[in-house]
Write a structure and sequence with these properties.
Strand 3 and strand 4 form a beta hairpin. By secondary structure, the chain is an alpha/beta fold. It has a single domain, classed as Stationary-phase Survival Protein Sure Homolog, Chain: A. It has 7 helices and 11 strands. Bound molecules: manganese (II) ion. The site of manganese (II) ion has 7 residues, from strand 5.
Length: 252
């Protein structure tokens, strides 16, 4: 089986190395990932600039392809151009920093997996909570166990999973929770500064919001020490509101 490994932290990121190691005996790996960090670029794609791909020596006689583009660009280019065989699995990560709550929408890690799912390929995004010494290897091994169980089932209907791993330095995870995406956001703010030429610039700062999350949400379960698994979809339609908005009688 061919597995496309990608991420948004860049092709040399330790989380990608951990993912490669954890999946090495599951199939033949193709590594196609951004040459530069692309965190929080969401599902952006490159339309107005050329995209180049370079052979990148990953050590140990292994080479990947570094792409000058976004994570979504990487998967799109890999599937349609770079790979000589379509992947049977897209694995994105291991990302440094949880992708729960509305971070799911900002995440390049998740976007790469969504792009894989656009092609109908089972795709998984894997992230670990940010900490001083993130255990990428441990997170990737956990992801591998989950992937094995997933692939043993019918992956035809469930093509997109978002996996988050808690800080493993705080002990073994309590277990796995299949959870919904919370609405956890950020207490955002801007620092206004002045550059050496006297011009104002802004720097986004923010902390994870501390509002109560639903007890069965991804953010709450992750904070409680569980590995979370969230099946995602990319139909953003609010189906429950179609009738309501349809009833407004909108007209031109
Ligand atoms: Mn990232």
């Amino acid at each position: 089986m061919r597995i496309l490994v990608t991420n948004d932290d860049g092709i040399m990121a330790p989380g990608l190395l951990a993912m490669r190691r954890a999946l090495a005996d599951l199939g033949r790996l193709d590594v196609v990932a951004p040459t530069t960090p692309q965190s929080a670029v969401g599902h952006s794609i490159t339309l107005t600039d050329p995209i180049r791909a370079h052979r990148v020596d990953l050590g140990g006689g292994v080479a990947g392809q570094g792409v000058e583009g976004s994570p979504a660009d990487c998967v799109k280019l890999a599937v349609l151009e770079l790979l000589d065989e379509p992947p049977a699995l897209v694995a994105s990560g291991v990302n440094l920093g949880a992708n729960v709550g509305i971070n799911v929408l900002y995440s390049g890690t998740v976007a790469a997996a969504v792009e894989g799912a656009f092609f109908g390929v089972p795709s998984v995004a894997v992230s670990i909570v940010d900490s001083d010494s993130p255990n990428f290897e441990g997170a990737a091994r956990i992801a591998r166990r989950l992937i094995d169980q997933w692939l043993a089932r019918d992956v035809g209907r469930t093509t997109l999973l978002n996996v988050n791993v808690p800080d493993l330095s705080r002990g073994r995870p309590k277990g796995v929770r299949v959870t919904g995406q919370s609405l956890k956001g950020w207490r955002e703010g801007w620092q206004r500064r002045t550059d050496p030429r006297g011009r104002t610039y802004y720097w986004m700062v923010g902390d994870p919001a501390d509002e109560e999350q639903g007890a069965d949400s991804d953010a709450a379960a992750l904070a409680d020490g569980y590995v979370t698994v969230t099946p995602l979809r990319f139909d953003l339609t609010d189906h429950g509101r179609l009738d309501e908005v349809g009833g407004w009688g909108l007209a031109l």
